[in-house]
Specification:
Elements lengths: L5 H8 L3 H8 L7 H13 L6 H8 L4 E6 L7 H14 L3 E6 L4 H13 L4 E4 L12 H5 L4 E4 L9 E4 L2 H14 L4 E6 L5 H14 L6 E6 L3 H11 L7 E4 L2 H13 L8 E6 L3 H5 L4 E4 L2 H17 L12 E3 L1
Parallel strand pairs: 1-2, 1-3, 3-4, 4-5, 5-11, 6-7, 6-8, 8-9, 9-10
Protein name: LacI family transcriptional regulator
Keywords: DNA-binding, Membrane, Transcription, Transcription regulation, Transmembrane, Transmembrane helix
InterPro entries: HTH_LacI, Lambda_DNA-bd_dom_sf, Peripla_BP/Lac1_sug-bd_dom, Peripla_BP_I
């Protein structure tokens, strides 16, 4: 069945489209009998208001575009919950676009957001994204943008990231304080800025204790962690492990279970969203990167930017907020 339009209802009832529109909005100038007829006709023929046309007239879609590098069971669900908690209170909806870690897909998603007339965009960059050139059109069109989690050095847009230096140093301190002398440190994709940031912080802290030996590996997934540890755990001298994320921790945990090393005196420390370690092993220590808080903070900053879109609002100052 063809979608019923406002003009279709007007033609059926032999009244003007503007009268139908006002009747649906319960306008006081429209009689009760006309309102009743319009309501009955709209229900009978399944009339659904055209949100796009309404947003065009109001110059606000009340919709946000959320662009992420990938859909993952780690971290992202809590981010989404945080974003949703803020946007729902503000009467906003949002749709999610996954770039599959492709810069070209990320550019296409930005065009999709523009064409969908979103009021603002929350974006976490792909590992292929090296600059913010593809965001310049958004700046020109005065569409507010907040970059979160995976970002790049730039000064055009506000961004929200975790304090990777502080968090990673705290994890290294836990291993040092436990007395670990031979540590295996598991990091994620070495091409990502977040990985390099955490690596530098970890190495800097550990180097303050010259007696500690550290072996570092890079793994893009939990499965790759398991593959590499199948060989590395032949060396039984490791007495401490560091995992830079929940994903790397999952791979580490699986490998320790396989070799019955999880109940030994070996120390495991990770950076985590906070939920996973509690279900894996209560002896694991972790520093929390609160994804829910990041979601609420990023969404709040975006709402602030949307509400302040006027000639006096300083757009794109490039502020970076550390959580």
């Amino acid at each position: 069945m063809k979608r019923t339009t406002l003009k279709d209802l007007a033609k059926m009832l032999n009244i003007s489209p503007s009268t139908v529109s006002r009747a649906l909005k319960d306008h006081p100038d429209i009689s009760s009998s006309v309102k009743l007829k319009v309501k009955e006709a709209s229900e009978m023929f399944n009339y659904i208001p055209n949100d796009f046309a309404i947003s065009f007239r109001k110059k606000s879609s009340k919709v946000i575009g959320l662009i992420v590098p990938e859909i993952s069971m780690f971290f992202l669900p809590s981010i989404i919950n945080g974003i949703s908690s803020v946007l729902n209170k503000e009467g906003y909806r949002f749709f999610i676009l996954s770039s599959d870690d492709s810069y070209e897909a990320e550019k296409e998603h930005i065009e999709t957001c523009i064409n969908s007339r979103v009021d603002g965009i929350l974006i976490s960059f792909t590992k292929e994204t090296k600059d913010d050139e593809h965001l310049k059109k958004l700046k020109e069109m005065e569409i507010p943008v907040i970059i979160f989690d995976k970002t790049i050095p730039q000064s055009s847009f506000e961004s929200v990231i975790f304090d990777n230096i502080k968090t990673t140093e705290q994890c290294a301190e836990k291993l040092i304080d436990h007395g670990c002398k031979n540590i295996l440190a598991i990091f994620g994709d070495e091409n990502l800025e977040i990985t390099q940031s955490r690596l530098k912080s970890f190495e800097k802290k550990i180097q303050q204790s010259p007696s500690i030996r550290v072996e570092i590996i890079f793994c893009k997934s939990a499965d790759i962690v398991k593959q590499k540890l199948d060989l590395l755990l032949d060396d039984d001298s490791f007495d401490g492990f560091f995992a830079m994320s929940d994903e790397t921790l999952m791979g580490l945990h699986s490998s320790l279970i396989k070799r019955n090393l999880n109940n030994t005196n070996k120390k495991v420390v990770a950076i985590s969203e906070g939920t996973l370690p509690k279900y894996l092993d209560e002896t694991y220590e972790y520093q929390i990167n609160d994804a829910y808080r990041m979601g609420t903070f990023a969404a709040t900053k975006l709402m602030d930017a949307i509400k302040k879109v006027n000639p006096d609002y300083p757009k794109g100052l490039g502020n970076c907020y550390y959580l």
